[in-house]
Protein backbone atom coordinates (compact mmCIF):
# COMPACT_ATOMS: atom_id res chain seq x y z
CA UNK A 1 0.00 0.00 0.00
CA UNK A 2 2.84 2.38 0.90
CA UNK A 3 4.35 1.75 -2.49
CA UNK A 4 1.05 2.55 -4.21
CA UNK A 5 0.71 5.85 -2.33
CA UNK A 6 4.26 6.76 -3.20
CA UNK A 7 3.60 6.15 -6.88
CA UNK A 8 3.40 9.51 -8.80
CA UNK A 9 0.29 8.45 -10.83
CA UNK A 10 -1.66 7.68 -7.66
CA UNK A 11 -1.00 11.22 -6.38
CA UNK A 12 -2.06 12.70 -9.73
CA UNK A 13 -5.38 10.77 -9.83
CA UNK A 14 -6.28 11.75 -6.25
CA UNK A 15 -5.47 15.41 -7.00
CA UNK A 16 -7.69 15.34 -10.10
CA UNK A 17 -10.67 13.87 -8.17
CA UNK A 18 -10.32 16.49 -5.43
CA UNK A 19 -10.22 19.28 -8.03
CA UNK A 20 -13.39 17.99 -9.73
CA UNK A 21 -15.27 17.77 -6.43
CA UNK A 22 -14.21 21.30 -5.51
CA UNK A 23 -15.30 22.63 -8.94
CA UNK A 24 -18.73 20.99 -8.74
CA UNK A 25 -19.30 22.27 -5.23
CA UNK A 26 -18.43 25.83 -6.25
CA UNK A 27 -20.75 25.73 -9.30
CA UNK A 28 -23.74 24.41 -7.36
CA UNK A 29 -23.34 27.23 -4.89
CA UNK A 30 -23.17 29.84 -7.69
CA UNK A 31 -26.27 28.55 -9.44
CA UNK A 32 -28.48 28.52 -6.34
CA UNK A 33 -27.26 31.81 -4.89
CA UNK A 34 -26.32 29.92 -1.76
CA UNK A 35 -24.72 31.21 1.34
CA UNK A 36 -23.13 28.00 2.61
CA UNK A 37 -21.67 27.09 5.91
CA UNK A 38 -19.16 24.45 4.92
CA UNK A 39 -18.30 23.52 8.48
CA UNK A 40 -20.26 20.91 10.44
CA UNK A 41 -23.47 19.24 9.36
CA UNK A 42 -25.63 22.37 9.01
CA UNK A 43 -26.02 24.03 5.60
CA UNK A 44 -27.74 27.22 4.37
CA UNK A 45 -28.75 28.02 0.80
CA UNK A 46 -30.70 30.97 -0.63
CA UNK A 47 -32.63 30.30 -3.82
CA UNK A 48 -33.51 33.38 -5.86
CA UNK A 49 -36.39 34.07 -8.30
CA UNK A 50 -38.68 31.32 -7.07
CA UNK A 51 -42.09 31.74 -8.81
CA UNK A 52 -45.17 32.41 -6.69
CA UNK A 53 -48.46 30.64 -7.50
CA UNK A 54 -51.72 32.43 -6.65
CA UNK A 55 -54.85 30.40 -6.00
CA UNK A 56 -58.19 32.17 -6.67
CA UNK A 57 -61.25 32.05 -8.96
CA UNK A 58 -59.51 33.04 -12.19
CA UNK A 59 -62.75 32.93 -14.21
CA UNK A 60 -64.47 35.66 -12.20
CA UNK A 61 -61.78 37.52 -10.28
CA UNK A 62 -58.71 39.64 -10.99
CA UNK A 63 -55.87 39.78 -8.46
CA UNK A 64 -53.08 42.34 -8.26
CA UNK A 65 -50.18 42.72 -5.85
CA UNK A 66 -48.91 39.13 -5.87
CA UNK A 67 -45.14 39.17 -6.52
CA UNK A 68 -44.03 37.09 -9.46
CA UNK A 69 -40.89 35.86 -7.70
CA UNK A 70 -39.48 35.60 -4.17
CA UNK A 71 -36.23 34.47 -2.58
CA UNK A 72 -36.29 31.34 -0.43
CA UNK A 73 -33.60 30.56 2.18
CA UNK A 74 -33.22 26.94 3.32
CA UNK A 75 -31.38 26.13 6.52
CA UNK A 76 -30.81 22.71 8.07
CA UNK A 77 -28.99 19.42 7.55
CA UNK A 78 -26.79 19.55 4.47
CA UNK A 79 -28.09 16.16 3.36
CA UNK A 80 -31.58 17.68 3.02
CA UNK A 81 -30.74 21.27 2.00
CA UNK A 82 -28.64 20.30 -0.98
CA UNK A 83 -31.09 17.98 -2.78
CA UNK A 84 -34.01 20.34 -1.99
CA UNK A 85 -32.09 23.23 -3.55
CA UNK A 86 -31.10 21.19 -6.59
CA UNK A 87 -34.50 19.61 -7.31
CA UNK A 88 -36.72 22.59 -6.39
CA UNK A 89 -39.77 20.32 -6.33
CA UNK A 90 -41.58 22.51 -3.82
CA UNK A 91 -44.17 25.27 -4.30
CA UNK A 92 -44.43 28.83 -3.01
CA UNK A 93 -47.97 30.19 -3.08
CA UNK A 94 -50.66 32.50 -1.77
CA UNK A 95 -54.13 31.14 -1.08
CA UNK A 96 -56.93 33.65 -1.82
CA UNK A 97 -59.74 31.19 -2.43
CA UNK A 98 -61.70 32.10 0.69
CA UNK A 99 -61.30 35.88 0.50
CA UNK A 100 -64.07 38.22 -0.76
CA UNK A 101 -63.48 41.32 -2.90
CA UNK A 102 -61.12 43.80 -1.26
CA UNK A 103 -57.51 44.48 -0.29
CA UNK A 104 -55.60 42.23 2.13
CA UNK A 105 -52.12 41.52 3.41
CA UNK A 106 -51.61 37.78 3.03
CA UNK A 107 -48.71 35.48 3.98
CA UNK A 108 -46.65 33.84 1.27
CA UNK A 109 -46.62 30.13 2.05
CA UNK A 110 -44.74 27.05 0.91
CA UNK A 111 -45.30 23.30 0.77
CA UNK A 112 -43.45 20.09 -0.05
CA UNK A 113 -40.35 21.15 1.92
CA UNK A 114 -39.03 18.90 4.71
CA UNK A 115 -40.06 19.83 8.24
CA UNK A 116 -36.43 19.47 9.24
CA UNK A 117 -35.54 22.62 7.31
CA UNK A 118 -36.03 26.20 8.41
CA UNK A 119 -37.58 28.13 5.55
CA UNK A 120 -37.44 31.91 5.18
CA UNK A 121 -39.29 33.65 2.35
CA UNK A 122 -38.44 37.19 1.31
CA UNK A 123 -40.84 38.96 1.11
CA UNK A 124 -42.88 36.94 3.54
CA UNK A 125 -46.22 38.57 2.73
CA UNK A 126 -47.95 40.54 -0.02
CA UNK A 127 -50.61 43.24 -0.13
CA UNK A 128 -53.11 41.98 -2.71
CA UNK A 129 -56.32 43.41 -4.15
CA UNK A 130 -59.14 41.17 -5.33
CA UNK A 131 -61.53 42.66 -7.88
CA UNK A 132 -64.43 41.52 -10.04
CA UNK A 133 -63.33 40.35 -13.48
CA UNK A 134 -65.22 41.65 -16.56
CA UNK A 135 -64.75 41.55 -20.33
CA UNK A 136 -65.82 44.26 -22.75
CA UNK A 137 -65.52 44.89 -26.50
CA UNK A 138 -64.00 48.17 -27.67
CA UNK A 139 -63.87 49.53 -31.25
CA UNK A 140 -60.38 50.21 -32.53
CA UNK A 141 -59.71 53.71 -33.81
CA UNK A 142 -56.75 54.70 -35.97
CA UNK A 143 -54.31 57.50 -35.22
CA UNK A 144 -51.81 58.69 -37.82
CA UNK A 145 -48.20 59.50 -37.00
CA UNK A 146 -45.92 61.63 -39.21
CA UNK A 147 -48.75 62.75 -41.51
CA UNK A 148 -46.78 65.97 -42.11
CA UNK A 149 -43.96 63.86 -43.56
CA UNK A 150 -46.04 62.63 -46.50
CA UNK A 151 -45.02 64.10 -49.89
CA UNK A 152 -46.70 67.37 -50.80
CA UNK A 153 -50.27 66.95 -52.03
CA UNK A 154 -50.79 63.39 -50.78
CA UNK A 155 -53.69 62.65 -48.44
CA UNK A 156 -55.22 59.67 -46.65
CA UNK A 157 -58.69 58.17 -46.97
CA UNK A 158 -60.81 56.33 -44.44
CA UNK A 159 -58.77 53.46 -42.91
CA UNK A 160 -60.13 49.95 -42.39
CA UNK A 161 -59.25 47.81 -39.37
CA UNK A 162 -59.35 43.99 -39.15
CA UNK A 163 -60.69 43.08 -36.67
CA UNK A 164 -62.41 46.39 -35.98
CA UNK A 165 -62.87 45.68 -32.25
CA UNK A 166 -60.90 44.00 -29.46
CA UNK A 167 -61.85 42.35 -26.19
CA UNK A 168 -60.33 43.66 -22.96
CA UNK A 169 -60.57 41.63 -19.77
CA UNK A 170 -59.65 42.89 -16.31
CA UNK A 171 -60.88 44.39 -13.07
CA UNK A 172 -64.18 46.21 -13.46
CA UNK A 173 -62.72 49.42 -12.00
CA UNK A 174 -59.93 49.33 -14.57
CA UNK A 175 -62.24 48.55 -17.49
CA UNK A 176 -64.42 51.50 -16.49
CA UNK A 177 -61.42 53.81 -16.87
CA UNK A 178 -60.93 52.93 -20.54
CA UNK A 179 -61.90 55.85 -22.81
CA UNK A 180 -60.62 54.75 -26.20
CA UNK A 181 -58.53 52.13 -27.98
CA UNK A 182 -56.20 53.02 -30.84
CA UNK A 183 -53.88 51.56 -33.43
CA UNK A 184 -51.14 53.95 -34.55
CA UNK A 185 -49.88 53.99 -38.16
CA UNK A 186 -46.73 55.79 -39.32
CA UNK A 187 -47.30 57.71 -42.60
CA UNK A 188 -43.71 58.91 -43.09
CA UNK A 189 -43.08 58.97 -46.88
CA UNK A 190 -46.33 57.13 -47.76
CA UNK A 191 -47.34 57.57 -51.43
CA UNK A 192 -49.66 54.62 -51.96
CA UNK A 193 -52.18 52.54 -50.05
CA UNK A 194 -50.45 50.73 -47.21
CA UNK A 195 -51.33 47.82 -44.92
CA UNK A 196 -49.68 47.55 -41.53
CA UNK A 197 -49.82 45.24 -38.51
CA UNK A 198 -50.28 47.72 -35.68
CA UNK A 199 -50.19 47.27 -31.92
CA UNK A 200 -53.38 48.19 -30.04
CA UNK A 201 -52.99 50.85 -27.33
CA UNK A 202 -55.47 51.46 -24.50
CA UNK A 203 -56.01 54.93 -22.94
CA UNK A 204 -58.01 56.49 -20.14
CA UNK A 205 -60.03 59.74 -20.35
CA UNK A 206 -56.94 61.82 -19.64
CA UNK A 207 -55.04 60.24 -22.49
CA UNK A 208 -52.82 58.16 -20.26
CA UNK A 209 -51.82 54.73 -21.52
CA UNK A 210 -53.23 51.87 -19.46
CA UNK A 211 -51.23 48.70 -18.84
CA UNK A 212 -53.87 46.34 -20.23
CA UNK A 213 -53.39 43.64 -22.85
CA UNK A 214 -56.32 43.52 -25.32
CA UNK A 215 -57.24 40.44 -27.32
CA UNK A 216 -55.96 40.51 -30.00
CA UNK A 217 -53.06 42.76 -29.09
CA UNK A 218 -52.51 43.87 -32.71
CA UNK A 219 -54.73 44.51 -35.73
CA UNK A 220 -54.30 44.89 -39.47
CA UNK A 221 -54.82 48.47 -40.64
CA UNK A 222 -55.24 49.41 -44.32
CA UNK A 223 -54.91 53.11 -45.13
CA UNK A 224 -55.83 54.42 -48.60
CA UNK A 225 -53.25 57.01 -49.66
CA UNK A 226 -54.37 59.43 -52.35
CA UNK A 227 -51.99 61.32 -54.54
CA UNK A 228 -52.65 64.90 -55.74
CA UNK A 229 -55.62 64.97 -58.12
CA UNK A 230 -57.24 67.06 -60.81
CA UNK A 231 -60.72 66.80 -62.32
CA UNK A 232 -60.88 67.45 -66.06
CA UNK A 233 -63.51 67.15 -68.84
CA UNK A 234 -63.61 64.12 -71.13
CA UNK A 235 -63.01 64.62 -74.85
CA UNK A 236 -64.33 62.05 -77.36
CA UNK A 237 -63.20 62.01 -80.98
CA UNK A 238 -64.75 60.09 -83.89
CA UNK A 239 -63.36 58.15 -86.82
CA UNK A 240 -65.15 56.79 -89.86
CA UNK A 241 -68.52 57.94 -91.22
CA UNK A 242 -72.10 57.05 -90.54
CA UNK A 243 -73.93 55.13 -93.30
CA UNK A 244 -76.07 57.07 -95.77
CA UNK A 245 -79.36 58.13 -94.29
CA UNK A 246 -78.02 58.12 -90.69
CA UNK A 247 -77.14 61.40 -89.00
CA UNK A 248 -75.20 62.05 -85.79
CA UNK A 249 -77.21 63.90 -83.16
CA UNK A 250 -74.82 63.79 -80.20
CA UNK A 251 -71.93 61.98 -78.56
CA UNK A 252 -72.11 62.12 -74.76
CA UNK A 253 -69.49 60.61 -72.41
CA UNK A 254 -70.63 59.31 -69.02
CA UNK A 255 -69.24 60.67 -66.84
CA UNK A 256 -68.22 63.78 -68.68
CA UNK A 257 -65.45 64.52 -66.15
CA UNK A 258 -62.80 62.28 -64.54
CA UNK A 259 -60.33 62.65 -61.68
CA UNK A 260 -56.67 62.04 -62.48
CA UNK A 261 -54.14 61.29 -59.73
CA UNK A 262 -50.44 61.87 -60.01
CA UNK A 263 -47.56 64.24 -59.23
CA UNK A 264 -48.47 67.92 -59.33
CA UNK A 265 -45.95 68.63 -62.08
CA UNK A 266 -47.77 66.12 -64.30
CA UNK A 267 -51.27 67.36 -63.47
CA UNK A 268 -50.31 70.95 -64.27
CA UNK A 269 -50.07 70.01 -67.95
CA UNK A 270 -53.41 68.18 -68.21
CA UNK A 271 -56.56 70.19 -68.99
CA UNK A 272 -58.73 67.44 -70.51
CA UNK A 273 -58.79 63.69 -70.91
CA UNK A 274 -57.84 62.82 -74.47
CA UNK A 275 -57.49 59.55 -76.32
CA UNK A 276 -61.11 58.32 -76.39
CA UNK A 277 -62.18 57.47 -79.94
CA UNK A 278 -65.48 56.14 -81.34
CA UNK A 279 -65.68 54.49 -84.77
CA UNK A 280 -68.87 55.55 -86.62
CA UNK A 281 -68.55 53.17 -89.56
CA UNK A 282 -70.86 50.51 -88.13
CA UNK A 283 -73.28 52.74 -86.21
CA UNK A 284 -76.81 52.51 -87.60
CA UNK A 285 -78.86 53.13 -84.44
CA UNK A 286 -78.43 54.71 -81.04
CA UNK A 287 -75.61 52.90 -79.25
CA UNK A 288 -73.53 52.92 -76.07
CA UNK A 289 -69.93 51.77 -76.01
CA UNK A 290 -67.68 51.36 -72.99
CA UNK A 291 -64.09 52.47 -73.35
CA UNK A 292 -61.05 52.22 -71.10
CA UNK A 293 -60.10 55.63 -69.80
CA UNK A 294 -56.54 56.25 -71.05
CA UNK A 295 -54.07 57.08 -68.28
CA UNK A 296 -52.04 60.19 -69.20
CA UNK A 297 -48.26 59.81 -69.21
CA UNK A 298 -46.81 60.24 -65.73
CA UNK A 299 -50.17 59.94 -63.94
CA UNK A 300 -50.68 57.26 -61.28
CA UNK A 301 -54.39 56.46 -61.63
CA UNK A 302 -57.70 57.70 -62.96
CA UNK A 303 -61.22 57.50 -61.58
CA UNK A 304 -63.35 56.14 -63.07
CA UNK A 305 -61.22 53.94 -65.31
CA UNK A 306 -64.16 53.12 -67.64
CA UNK A 307 -66.13 55.64 -69.71
CA UNK A 308 -69.49 54.96 -71.33
CA UNK A 309 -70.05 56.88 -74.57
CA UNK A 310 -73.67 57.34 -75.67
CA UNK A 311 -74.04 57.82 -79.42
CA UNK A 312 -77.40 59.27 -80.51
CA UNK A 313 -78.25 59.16 -84.21
CA UNK A 314 -81.32 59.81 -86.34
CA UNK A 315 -82.31 58.31 -89.67
CA UNK A 316 -83.64 60.22 -92.67
CA UNK A 317 -87.37 60.81 -92.91
CA UNK A 318 -89.41 61.61 -96.01
CA UNK A 319 -91.84 64.52 -96.43
CA UNK A 320 -94.09 64.60 -99.53
CA UNK A 321 -95.74 67.67 -101.04
CA UNK A 322 -98.02 67.59 -104.05
CA UNK A 323 -98.69 70.34 -106.64
CA UNK A 324 -95.58 72.32 -105.86
CA UNK A 325 -95.45 75.16 -108.46
CA UNK A 326 -92.47 75.66 -110.74
CA UNK A 327 -91.34 79.22 -111.37
CA UNK A 328 -89.80 80.45 -114.66
CA UNK A 329 -86.67 82.60 -114.41
CA UNK A 330 -84.49 84.32 -117.01
CA UNK A 331 -87.43 85.06 -119.36
CA UNK A 332 -87.15 88.38 -121.20
CA UNK A 333 -90.02 90.79 -120.66
CA UNK A 334 -91.01 90.48 -124.32
CA UNK A 335 -91.60 86.77 -124.00
CA UNK A 336 -94.11 84.65 -122.24
CA UNK A 337 -93.77 81.00 -121.28
CA UNK A 338 -96.26 78.22 -120.79
CA UNK A 339 -95.69 74.75 -119.38
CA UNK A 340 -96.47 71.97 -121.78
CA UNK A 341 -95.37 69.36 -119.33
CA UNK A 342 -96.01 69.02 -116.49
CA UNK A 343 -99.43 70.50 -116.86
CA UNK A 344 -99.97 73.73 -115.00
CA UNK A 345 -96.28 73.68 -114.05
CA UNK A 346 -96.73 71.69 -110.85
CA UNK A 347 -95.04 68.50 -109.64
CA UNK A 348 -94.89 66.26 -106.56
CA UNK A 349 -91.77 66.55 -104.43
CA UNK A 350 -90.41 64.06 -101.86
CA UNK A 351 -87.95 65.58 -99.37
CA UNK A 352 -85.51 63.25 -97.61
CA UNK A 353 -83.32 64.29 -94.71
CA UNK A 354 -82.87 64.57 -90.95
CA UNK A 355 -86.17 64.68 -89.05
CA UNK A 356 -85.51 67.98 -87.32
CA UNK A 357 -84.79 69.64 -90.65
CA UNK A 358 -87.39 68.00 -92.89
CA UNK A 359 -90.24 68.32 -90.42
CA UNK A 360 -89.49 71.97 -89.96
CA UNK A 361 -89.98 72.81 -93.66
CA UNK A 362 -93.09 74.16 -95.37
CA UNK A 363 -93.96 74.54 -99.04
CA UNK A 364 -92.87 78.15 -98.83
CA UNK A 365 -89.35 76.98 -97.99
CA UNK A 366 -89.11 74.99 -101.25
CA UNK A 367 -88.66 77.05 -104.45
CA UNK A 368 -88.77 75.10 -107.75
CA UNK A 369 -87.79 76.85 -110.97
CA UNK A 370 -86.63 76.45 -114.56
CA UNK A 371 -84.07 78.80 -116.07
CA UNK A 372 -84.95 79.78 -119.68
CA UNK A 373 -82.43 82.57 -119.95
CA UNK A 374 -80.93 82.70 -123.46
CA UNK A 375 -83.64 80.52 -125.03
CA UNK A 376 -85.54 81.62 -128.15
CA UNK A 377 -89.21 81.10 -128.91
CA UNK A 378 -90.50 77.56 -129.22
CA UNK A 379 -90.67 74.50 -127.05
CA UNK A 380 -87.74 73.66 -124.82
CA UNK A 381 -87.06 70.85 -122.35
CA UNK A 382 -85.25 72.34 -119.36
CA UNK A 383 -84.18 70.87 -115.98
CA UNK A 384 -86.22 71.62 -112.92
CA UNK A 385 -84.06 73.17 -110.21
CA UNK A 386 -84.67 74.10 -106.58
CA UNK A 387 -83.30 76.03 -103.67
CA UNK A 388 -83.00 73.49 -100.89
CA UNK A 389 -81.80 73.53 -97.29
CA UNK A 390 -78.58 71.78 -96.46
CA UNK A 391 -78.75 68.10 -95.47
CA UNK A 392 -81.98 67.65 -97.45
CA UNK A 393 -82.30 65.65 -100.64
CA UNK A 394 -85.25 65.83 -103.03
CA UNK A 395 -86.95 63.32 -105.21
CA UNK A 396 -89.19 65.17 -107.75
CA UNK A 397 -91.91 63.41 -109.75
CA UNK A 398 -90.26 64.95 -112.83
CA UNK A 399 -86.73 66.18 -113.27
CA UNK A 400 -87.38 68.22 -116.48
CA UNK A 401 -90.15 70.36 -117.81
CA UNK A 402 -91.35 71.17 -121.38
CA UNK A 403 -91.75 74.93 -121.75
CA UNK A 404 -93.28 76.74 -124.71
CA UNK A 405 -91.85 80.26 -125.18
CA UNK A 406 -93.73 82.79 -127.28
CA UNK A 407 -93.18 86.37 -128.36
CA UNK A 408 -95.79 88.53 -126.67
CA UNK A 409 -96.21 90.72 -129.78
CA UNK A 410 -96.81 87.76 -132.06
CA UNK A 411 -99.07 86.07 -129.58
CA UNK A 412 -101.36 89.12 -129.68
Automatic annotation (TrEMBL):
**Which InterPro entries does the UniProt entry name for this protein?**
c-di-AMP_regulator (IPR053154), YbbR (IPR012505)
Q: Which domain of life is it from?
A: Bacteria
Q: Name any one Pfam family assigned in the record.
A: YbbR
Q: Name it.
A: YbbR-like domain-containing protein
Q: Which organism is it from?
A: Geobacillus stearothermophilus
Amino acid sequence: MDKLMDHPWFIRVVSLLLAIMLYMSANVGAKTGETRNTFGQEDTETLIDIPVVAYYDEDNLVVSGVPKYVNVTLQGPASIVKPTALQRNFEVYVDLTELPLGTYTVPIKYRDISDKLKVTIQPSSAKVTIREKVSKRFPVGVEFFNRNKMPDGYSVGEPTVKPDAVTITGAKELIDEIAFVKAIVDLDGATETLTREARVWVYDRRGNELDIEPEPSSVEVTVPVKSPSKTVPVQVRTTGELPDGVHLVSITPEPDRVTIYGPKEVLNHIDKLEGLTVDLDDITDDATVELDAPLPDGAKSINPDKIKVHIDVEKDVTQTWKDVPIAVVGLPDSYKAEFVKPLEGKITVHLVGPPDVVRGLTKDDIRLYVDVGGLDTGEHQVPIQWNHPKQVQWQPSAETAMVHIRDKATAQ
